[in-house]
Amino acid sequence: MATPPVPPRPLPAPRPRIGLLGIMQPLYDAMLPGITDHQAEYAHRVARHLSDTADWTVAPPVRGREDAERAVRDLENAGVDGVLVVMLTYGPSLRVTGALTRTRLPLALANIQPDPSVTAEWDMADMTYNQGIHGAQDTANALVRAERRFDVITGDWQSPGFAERIDRWARAARAATALRGLRVGVFGYPMNGMGDARVDETALLRALGPEIEVIAPGALHRATLDLGEKEVAELLAWEDEAFEVDPRLSAKERDDHARMQLGIERLLTERGCHAYSTHFDAIGEDGRFDRLPMAAASTLMAQGYGFAGEGDVLAATVVRAGHVLAGDAHFTEMYAMDFPSDSILMSHMGEGNWRIARGDEPLRLIKRPLDIGGLADPPTVLFRYRPGPATLASLVALGGERFRLVVSEGEVLDAPPLPSLEMPYGQYRPDTGVRDCTEGWLRAGGTHHMALHTGHRAADWRALCDITGIEYVRV
Questions:
Q1: Which domain holds residue 61?
Q2: Residue 278 sits in a domain of what CATH number?
Q3: Among 249, 243, 186, 242, CA closest to 219
């Protein structure tokens, strides 16, 4: 299978940064001199063992309220994405409740102990070292009573299954942090009359964090004019290597497309946006553009930007969250149902993340007629989705600060090609079948724009919902 080309300037994809907060108390010092150092080393062993899942910052053992306040404050200042609480011994909950309920960082309780099994050789020291579970119970009770969201991860900390769950939670914590700092650029204005993409932007900001940055089409026009010939030439040379380029594309068409892509990227970088949306009418009615930036959206998505068409901030947000959560999210919509194969044809006007393309066919940059927008033919990256497990996710605004994520798992079929379809596409078969999936989607208010991932990612999306308070609905 061919390896997808590396995008020209991928966005940084930082690993999760997680703080480990170990809790104990001075009660056992006289009975077991050196217990604090002993259990501190245990905390560091846990972090070292989990080093493949995240970059870890291990706080000094918390033995009292002042320790807890200082440790949580230091972890916040260190910029961690979440805090994993580990009971090093029993620790009374009231000494840590204040610090844990005030922090905005995602929390998880690791219900673990140093030794995986109770043996005949255990003495009172071993009992003390391994008694974390009732400290976890005490602390969890306090968090529940405070209505503070948290996750619980139980198991042998040296097992692959435990590492897998920590990895999922850490990635979800990283995605939640990314949402809190996300800025979504909207070029022009959203599509008139399209209701499921509309959202109260102040409620979105308060509940999840994304901020909307409106960017005038004139700013994009000026950005395309300010580009140097070297930048354009470098992008075109990269495309020549990455894509099978349609010989019908003229030098003028490719130059124009490249300038729009680079102009969008420059504005997103200058304004700190990691997601964006364009609307064909906003581009077409401006009067200064020859064509729509279709290929631009495909490569910018492949670089890690969230994207959605028609000014859809919600979909752009969920695509960016998907990039951070699991990598290579793709913008799409349900175009038509195919009942004989129990599948749904997925596509959009011409935008698609070519990182999810099947590897046995070339990525093609084609000259493609498109009447929408009333402009000239937009160069478009054409590919079919890679067959195999897949997941759909839709972010729904329910009013006020209530949001819902509608999720479906299934597979992309190895279906026959559709030769006349000149845009990225694939046929998705839901695990629950077309009828139950689409009926559930409609009843839950799932939107018509969504993110698609290769792989089964429902558990990842659920972890993000648990952290952020988004309602999770699987159909």
A1: 17-179
A2: 3.20.14
A3: 186
Q: Which tens digit of pLDDT belongs to each residue from 10-51? A: 998 789 999 999 999 998 888 899 999 999 999 999 999 999
Q: Of 123, 148, 179, which closes a domain?
A: 179
Residue (of 376, 378, 355, 356) closest to 365 by Cα position: 378
Q: Are 78 and 21 in contact (CB under 8 A)?
A: no
Domain end point (choices 156, 179, 202): 179
Assign 380 to helix, strand or coil. strand
Name 155's Cβ contacts closer than 8 Å, sequence gap at least 6.
111, 112, 161, 162, 165
Number of domains within the chain: 2
φ and ψ of 190, to 5 deg: -75, 165
pLDDT digits (tens, 9 = 90+) for 84-114: 999 999 999 999 999 999 999 999 999 999 9
Bridging pattern class, strands 388-399 and 402-412: antiparallel
Q: Is the pLDDT of residue 4 over 80?
A: no
CA distance 281 to 160: 51
Tell me the residue type at 222. R
3, part of any domain: no
Same-domain check for residues 269 and 385: yes
Tokens of 239: 């495309």
Structure tokens at 181: 């700092």
Give yes or no: residues 167 and 207 share one domain: no
CA 254 to chain centre: 31
Rounded percentage of the chain residues whose pLDDT exceeds 70: 99
Rg (CA), the chain: 25
**Unique residue bearing structure tokens 């042998």:** 156
277 contacts 308 by C-beta, under 8 angstroms: yes
**144 CB-near residues (< 8 Å, 6+ apart):** none
Q: 234 and 170: one domain? A: no
Considering the domain architecture, whether residues 87 and 225 belong to the same structural domain is answered as no
Contacts of 151 by beta carbon, 8 Å cutoff, 6+ apart = 106, 107, 108, 109, 169, 463, 466, 467
| pLDDT tens, position by position, 405-428 | 999 999 999 999 999 999 999 999
What pLDDT, on the 0 to 100 scale, is given for residue 18?
98
Q: Which residues contact 27 (CB under 8 A, 6 or more apart)?
A: none
Inform me whether the pLDDT recorded for 1 exceeds 70.
no
Question: What's the rounded Cα separation, in Å, for the pair 25 and 29?
Answer: 8
Q: Give kind and range of the element (H or E) at residue 434.
A: helix 433-443
Q: Does the pLDDT of residue 151 top 60, yes or no?
A: yes
pLDDT tens digits along 182-236: 999 999 888 888 999 999 999 999 999 999 999 999 999 999 999 999 999 999 9
Give the bridge partners for 364, in sequence order: 244, 382
Query: Residue 219 carries which side chain, given as an amino acid letter?
Result: A
